UniProtKB/TrEMBL annotation:
Keywords: Cell membrane, Membrane, Transmembrane, Transmembrane helix. InterPro entries: Fumarate_red_C, SQR/QFR_C/D. It comes from Paucibacter sediminis. This is Fumarate reductase subunit C. Pfam families: Fumarate_red_C (PF02300). The keyword Iron-sulfur does not apply. The keyword Flavoprotein does not apply.
Amino acid sequence: MNVKRHPPYRRPMTGWWKRDPFFMRYMLRETTAFAVAAYAIVLCVGVVRLAQGEAAWNGWLQALRSPLSLLLHLVLLIAFVIHAYSWFQIMPKTLPMIKMGGEQVSAGAIQRTGWSAAAIATVLVLALAAWWQS
């Protein structure tokens, strides 16, 4: 007896993340991690240029002032804001339950604390940079 065998069913995976807004947000969040990596590379190149001497450092600083670099930094800034927003959104879901005064801390309070910490760190870094320049 000759039985015709069919291959097992395989669900198509092309564009799986486009089918659900949740997965689209997930992919956007994961894609913004490449912006973080790109900026880490920019900073590492700066450290290497600093180690190579004043001329190399000044050349790197001049390259950062080019229109293409400014556009890249604008795109990276937008990606960083999206990245931070998405992480602060999922922070209450990933943290262990936090209780204060016998009650669970709300998701909104956790998100506001994250944004506040980010804002304070930004102000401190900018103040330090301004102090360093003077």
